[in-house]
Amino acid sequence: MQTTFPRLLLDHAAARPGAPALREKEFGIWQTLSWSALAELVRALAGGFAEAGLKRGQHLVVIGENRPRLYASMLAAQSLGAIPVPLYQDAAAAEFAFPIANADVAFAVVEDQEQVDKLIEVRATCPKLAQIWYDDSRGLRHYQEPGLASLDALVAAGRAFAAADPGFFEREIALTKPDDVAAMFFTSGTTGNAKGVVHTHDTLIDRARAGARFDKLTENEEVLAYLPPAWVGQNIFSYAQWLACGYVVNCPESASTVMLDLREIGPTYYFAPPRVFEGLLTSVMIRMEDAARPKRWLFDRCMALARRVGPARMDGKPIAFMDRLAYAVGNLLVYAPLRNTLGFSRVRVAYTAGEAIGPDLFVFYRSLGINLKQLYGSTETAVFVCLQPDHEVKNDTVGVPIEGVEIKVTENGEVLVRSPGLLKEYYKDPVATAEVLGADGWYRTGDAGFIDASGHLKIIDRAKDVGRIAGGGHDGALFAPKYVENKLKFFPYIKEAVAFGDKRDKVCAFVNIDIEAVGNWAERRNLPYGSYADLAQKPAVLQLVRECVEKVNADLAADERLAGSQISRFLVLHKELDADDGELTRTRKVRRGFIGERYQLLVDALYGGRSEQFVETAVKFEDGRTGKVAATLKIIDATTFAAVGKAA
Amino acid sequence: MAGRPAGDVILDVRNISLRFGGVKALSDITFDVREHEIRAIIGPNGAGKSSMLNCINGVYQPQEGSISLRGRTFSKMNSHQVAEMGVARTFQNLALFKGMSVLDNIMTGRNLKMKTNLFQQALRWGAAEREETTHRRVVENIIDFLEIQAYRKTPVGKMPYGLQKRVDLGRALAMEPQVLLLDEPMAGMNVEEKQDMSRFILDVNDEFGTTIVLIEHDMGVVMDISDRVVVLDYGRKIGDGSPDEVRANPDVISAYLGTVH
């Protein structure tokens, strides 16, 4: 049955008025908002928006962390047939200007003073931005800005409005059709300006429900909403599926308490990009390295067993009796307490997406007994394209096409998708729309991959990034940079990596150390250091990274097709790659081309055979100021290996 | 600071002199503090800043002079009585209970406002439970305000120094004071921590309307956040006025930078 988000809200409020819809931890206590209370809040907000002049088809910008009233604002906008546009809360003010100007936005709902300040700055270039409402009034008492008001005031005005015209809310909701536009997401875009991806109620709800049926999600799920609401993944899991299934979404107290809140809630359905799982594993490993020797011994033994037995157990394969027994002991001593510490005790289904996950990282969680799976999708496909069925999980594939999805692979290896969840269009950009969306309904993903023998989709890299080695000992060999980078990033000491090699005779790489992990490592070795840049160039640290690189090389050499991607030379960067400097996207994907240009000097030094290179880089701080960091970077040669295996 | 209303005199310090045996710590100090303002006392090491604060706080009793709070004059009062009059303070070297959680440490700031006795509290009986709920709400508000939710249950001794300073401030705030005395709130902090603390001080002043008297060694920060500044040197007052006036005062410049002989 086709429906809209506001109608789903009314359905839940009618069927289960007292059941919890949202929880938010505030003042140390989880405060619950029931479906009926939420519906009343949305009714008031919708009344307030209508009175302020928000019209059908207009856009409402929403910026902030996951807060109940921001979710309610999105529902209220949709109730009026307006279109919520969530933007990334950690973006700099200048980054808001394009979407706000592009969509002629006149209204915005934001979380706090920080966001208000940014919007006031944006107003200089976007004079149409008439109204800004804020959720948290702290620090805003003395602001005299015209059109600035609190959500409290809006709710009060909306209540009066609703009292004067009681049927207004329901009438407006009835006017919204399922194929009307429901939301617009600006993609971070690894290249060029952000594009507004337009989705209808139909496309989002269809995919949300297909995903829910695939994993048999119910109204009893608990979800923790902690990723940016502007990201389509977060929006699907804690908005579209929330309304489609009617489960509970929990908002953490603050960004710094997410880990504590995760443990308290114990979600049953969990979603995170690989970097979050990486971060969790790093924190576990750091704590284990600091643990007493007997504990470390126990942990290492149990984890070795888990790696051997765990994956087969998760796949539902038969396991020898002794292994079953040993695993049960391990579960009692290590796995269960560890799952609890991580907040994964109750997880029934956990997904990772957004980027390829390192195989070792993936196996780590599966072997602990956590049902971690991969999915494939993007903003344009409303996330759900391929999912891994329980018991059919593989490290290197992203699962099977789910109901409604058709997949085909073009001759040059690009994956095409047809599904009811495809974007309607790119906002005001028919040229870009035509580039990805053919008249026959096929969407070009831009990913290179193939369907393997068991019907699973395997993604290697972005189609445009897959390159070839030219010249040298591996002439013509395949070069999949992301594959190499991911292998490096699995080491807790390495935070980011950038590999170069397309049309070159060998592969070279930039490495970013993980300051927390390497700092801890240095501390335990009594290795003093002054700053990030100083630590990064310590000979002992360079040796540490070199060992990681060589392990990756040995791994790559095991596969004939990938042996050419081994890293011959590398350097450790003097600063962290940062989204504020344009080196990463807001979802923390490496912008390889941009980095290659920005650090041309370093790339030339790597390929020119130099042993060190002085470099000075401008950096942008979070408050918008700029500064410079300079360092002389050593360039290290790494051992490469002859290919030993046949293609897997 | 612009926008904040300058109120009446809330704290009036008149001709204070303090001696330890033959050592003159303070001589003939006079200044006032207006309601809702941020008043700084600055000066080089050993200028008598902490002694001055200890006099206001009732820890030291000056031999001469008087201090009046909202028109009530006192010259002999202990720190407990001063606290009951609505004056709270933080400490330069932190005086927190290291083994207790952040929550419990801040809760101790509610001590004066608790009416139930030890016996009732131990059993959480009747009024004690209601009272704890009320106080917990205040404490949680402060934890939220100071953005230390992630450390609510963490023993204070395990926290970084900058955050311990924040807890110390939280405990003082728990008294819901009219006047807040801050003893070197930024001592030993890095630039980022100083910025955070400055923001909290301004927010406390703005949100709760608390009058703040702060002692600081670091002139830069103080000049940015204070409405008026008193400068002490060797126990004497050598300057008093707005940050700009004080900055231009030749005596102050020579006390900080030394004079050319």
What is the succession of H and E elements of chain B?
EEEHEEHEHHHHEHEHEEHH
Helix content of chain B: 25-40%
Number of domains of chain B: 2
Structural class of chain A: alpha/beta
Arithmetic mean of pLDDT of chain B? 87
CATH superfamily of the largest domain in chain B: P-loop containing nucleotide triphosphate hydrolases
Helical fraction of chain A: 25-40%
What Rg of chain A is obtained from the alpha carbons, in whole angstroms? 25 Å
CATH level-1 class of the largest domain in chain B? Alpha Beta
Biggest sheet strand line-up of chain A: 4-3-5-6-7
Q: pLDDT under 50 segments of chain B (min length 5)?
A: none
Count of alpha/pi helices of chain A:
21
Biggest interface pair, residues each? A-B, 13 and 16 residues
Could you name the CATH topology of the largest domain in chain B?
Rossmann fold
What's the arrangement of secondary structure elements?
The complex is a heterodimer of chains A (648) and B (261).
Chain A: H1 5-15, E1 20-26, E2 29-34, H2 35-52, E3 59-63, H3 68-79, E4 83-87, H4 93-102, E5 107-110, H5 113-123, E6 131-134, E7 148-150, H6 151-164, H7 168-175, E8 181-186, E9 196-200, H8 201-214, E10 222-224, H9 232-245, E11 248-251, H10 258-265, E12 269-272, H11 274-290, H12 293-314, H13 321-342, E13 349-352, H14 359-367, E14 372-376, E15 386-387, E16 400-401, E17 406-409, E18 414-418, E19 425-426, H15 430-436, E20 443-451, E21 457-462, E22 467-468, E23 478-479, H16 481-489, E24 494-500, E25 507-513, H17 515-524, H18 532-536, H19 539-557, E26 567-572, H20 592-598, H21 600-607, E27 612-620, E28 626-637
Parallel strand pairs in A: 1-11, 3-4, 3-5, 5-6, 6-7, 10-11, 12-13, 13-14, 25-26
Antiparallel strand pairs in A: 1-2, 8-9, 9-19, 14-15, 15-16, 17-18, 18-20, 20-21, 22-23, 24-25, 26-28, 27-28
Chain B: E1 9-20, E2 23-34, E3 38-42, H1 49-57, E4 64-69, E5 72-74, H2 79-84, E6 87-89, H3 102-108, H4 118-123, H5 127-145, H6 161-173, E7 179-183, H7 191-207, E8 211-216, H8 219-225, E9 228-233, E10 236-241, H9 243-248, H10 250-257
Parallel strand pairs in B: 3-8, 3-9, 6-7, 7-8
Antiparallel strand pairs in B: 1-2, 1-4, 4-5, 9-10
Helix pairs in contact in B: 3-6
